[in-house]
Amino acid sequence: MASKRNRTINLPAPYLKRVWLEPSRITDRAAYPFCLPLLRDDFELSFDRAITIIVGENGTGKSTLLEGIAVLAGYDEAGGGKGYMPVDHSDALEKMGGSLSTALRASWLPKITNGWFFRAESFFSIARYLDKAALDDPFGPPPPDFLSHSHGEGFLRFFEERCQRQGIFIFDEPESALSPARQMEFLKLMRMMEVSGISQIIMATHSPMLMAYPGATLLRLSKYGLEPVTVEQTDHYKVMREFCDDPAGFVEAAIAE
C-alpha cells in the first residue's frame, strides 16, 4: 500500500496558490536579493493555472525567485527534489534562493512536496547524486544507462518518469539543455503533465517556443515587477522574428553596432 506521504491528493493543480513578501522578515533591504526592484514590500505572485511561465532579461531576478519558491516547496536551491542535496554547501556562499525564502510566505491547497526543481547547470550533479546515493526515492532510481544519454535526451527521460506523479515542478531555463527539436518534445511533456491534472509547473525561460505554450499564464519580469504579457509582446519573440525574417542582415547589423 502506498505510504501516506506519497498518496495522490484528489485535488487539481495548481497547489501553490500564492507567494508574497513579508517585509518584517527582511533584515537588510540593501542586501541582495532584497534590493531587486521586483521585491517591493507589496510583492505578490498568484497562481491560478497549472502552468506559469516567467520571462525577462538576465539580472531581473527570475532564477532567484524560482530558487526561493523551490526552497518553500522543500527542495534544495541548487536543484533536485525534497531531501536531495546534490551539491556541498559547506564552503559556498549563501544561496540567494534560501535567503529569499526566509522572507517569503506561501499559500498552498494542499501543500505538495513531491516534484523536482530543475536547473540546467546542476542537472548532471543531481543525476550522479541519484545514481550513487541510496535514497528512498518515491519515483524510483534513474535508469542504469541514464548518464550515457545526451544532455537533452537524459533530461527528457528523467522527467518523463517523474512527471507521472503528483507534484510541483520548477524549471529554470530548461531550453539550455535542449535543442529546438528537443524543445518540441518538452512541449509534449508539458502537455502530458497538464492533462494529468496533478502537476503544477513554474518555469522561467528565454525560449519563445516554450513561452508559446497554449493556455499558460505568461508573466514578464522587469524593473517594474511582474505583468501579464503575450508571446508577441516579449523582446525575445521580437528579436527572434527579426532574425528569422533576414538572418544574414540581422547578424551583420548586430556585429556592426
UniProtKB/TrEMBL annotation:
Keywords: Cell membrane, Ion transport, Iron, Iron transport, Membrane, Transport. It is a peripheral membrane protein. It comes from the Bacteria. It is found in: Cell membrane. Residues 48-225 form the AAA+ ATPase domain. InterPro entries: AAA+_ATPase, ATPase_AAA_core, P-loop_NTPase, Rad50/SbcC_AAA, Siderophore_ABC-ATPase. This is Predicted ATPase. It comes from Bradyrhizobium canariense. The lineage of its organism: Bacteria, Pseudomonadati, Pseudomonadota, Alphaproteobacteria, Hyphomicrobiales.
